[in-house]
Write a structure and sequence with these properties.
By secondary structure, the chain is mostly helical. The chain folds into two domains: about 45 residues; about 45 residues, no CATH class. It contains three helices and no strands. α1 packs across α2. The protein is extended. The model has no long low-confidence stretch (mean pLDDT about 85).
């Protein structure tokens, strides 16, 4: 999806007006399809040998994920845990390095 279309849809959805109401049935459909896919994946999901926390959001940038991650790590360290952080970063390419 092109960046301008992505920005436009995000702006429409964030305003909660008539246009976002028109997109609501698509959101429901997307939610149902996503839930179905996740249920299918859960049947064969890999189980991590350690506890895992995921800090994420549907929005990119400025939603407070980094401060939450820092606070979680500090709280866990205060309790004697040794947390690690795995981050791919916004716009990162996944795969072997060139």
């Amino acid at each position: 999806m092109s960046r301008w279309l992505e920005d436009l849809l995000l702006a429409i959805w964030s305003r909660r007006g008539a246009a976002s109401a028109l997109l609501l049935p698509l959101a429901w459909l997307y939610g149902r399809l996503s839930a179905r896919r996740l249920r299918a994946q859960a049947r064969t999901a890999w189980k991590a040998p350690v506890p895992v926390l995921v800090v994420g959001n549907i929005l990119v940038g400025g939603t407070g994920k980094t401060p939450v991650t820092i606070a979680l790590c500090q709280a866990l360290q205060a309790r004697g845990w040794h947390p690690g952080i795995v981050s791919r970063g916004y716009g990162a390419a996944v795969g072997p390095e060139p």
